[in-house]
Amino acid sequence: MPRMLDVSDDVRAEIGDEEADRLLAGENAPGSYDCTSCRTPGDSEQERTSTVLFIGDETAVLAFAHATCLPSQVVQVTEEQLQGAVRSIAADGGSTRAVPEQAVAEQAVLGVTSGLLLVNGELHPALVVEPTAPIARPGTTTAGDDFLPLLIEQGFMPLTEIDSVPPVLHGWSVLLAMGQLHAILQPGPAGGQPVAWWQAHQALQVADSWRAAANKHQQVLLFAAPVGSIGRQPREDLLRGALDKAAANGKLVAATLPLAGT
Questions:
Q1: How, if at all, do strands 122-131 and 219-224 pair?
Q2: Do 51 and 157 lie in a common domain?
C-alpha cells in the first residue's frame, strides 16, 4: 500500500530514485514507526511522514518522523553519533534501516548552548552556536574560517555589543517539541519547506525557565561565534561574559528566530 511519505530532493539524491520510489510505493517503508524526533508512535498509512536520512562517516541510516515534527532531510552526524542514535532508537523500538551511502560530506559539529540572557531589563531565551572547527566556504579548498561571513550573508547581524534584541530573521526558526530542543531550521532551497541548519541527534532538554521564556516571547535569540570564541561555560553569567567579549572582538553575529513548537 502506498505510504504518505515525504522524500525530499536531498534524501532522494542520496538514496537514489529507485530506492525512493520503492519507499513511496510502500515496499520498504514501515506502516507504524516511532518518530525519530518526538519518539511517539506514527503511522505512514494514516499521516504524513518524513524520511530522515542520517549520514555518518561510513554508514547511513534512514529513519522516519511525523511531518509535523521534522521535514524530510539529510542530517550529517559523526559515525559515533550515528551508532549511538541507532542503539537508542532500536532500544525504544523505533524504525531505522541501513541504506547504501553514495556521498558523505565532512562537517564540523555545531555546539549549541542554551541560556537566559538579560537584554534591556528583560530575560530572553538564547541559543549560542559555536563550531568545533573552522567552517570553510562550500567549494573552497583554502584554509580559513568563513562561519560568520556565511551567516551574515544569510541575514545575521554582526554585533559589537549586546544592547538590544536583534532583528527577526524570517524563514528561520527554532524547533521545540515536547519541551525539548530538536533543531534550528533555515529556509529550504528555492523557497521549499524548511531544512535543518542544526539538528540534535538526540533531543536536548532545556530548563523550565528557558522554555517558559520561549513560550512567553514566542521567539529565541540566536548568537553564533567562530570556534574558540565562547567555549563551554558552566553558568549563564560566564556565558554572557564570553558573549560580550566575542562581540567586542568583532566575533559575534545574532538574529531573533521565531519559535516553532512548544
A1: parallel
A2: no
Q: Do 131 and 45 belong together in one domain?
A: no
Domain count, the chain: 2
104 domain residue, yes or no: no
- Determine the residue type at 93: G
Q: Are 227 and 145 in contact (CB under 8 A)?
A: yes
Report d(CA 155, CA 175) in Å as an integer. Answer: 19
- Kindly calculate the radius of gyration of the chain based on its CA atoms and give it in whole angstroms: 19
Which three-class secondary structure state does DSSP give residue 104?
Answer: coil
Do 232 and 197 contact (CB within 8 A), yes or no? no
Q: What is the pTM of this model?
A: 0.60
Report the alpha-carbon distance of residue 154 to residue 142 in Å, rounded.
Answer: 22
DSSP run (H or E) holding 259:
strand 253-261
Where is the domain boundary, 98, 124, 151? 98
Instruction: Please write the tens of the pLDDT for every residue from 206-215.
Output: 888 999 999 8
Q: How many CB atoms lie within 10 A of CB 57?
A: 14
Tens of pLDDT, residue by residue over 103-123, are 333 345 788 889 999 998 899
pLDDT in tens, 214-240: 989 999 999 999 988 988 787 888 999
User: Is the Cα torsion angle 150, 233, 257, 10 positive or negative in sign?
Assistant: positive
- Does residue 119 share a domain with residue 39? no
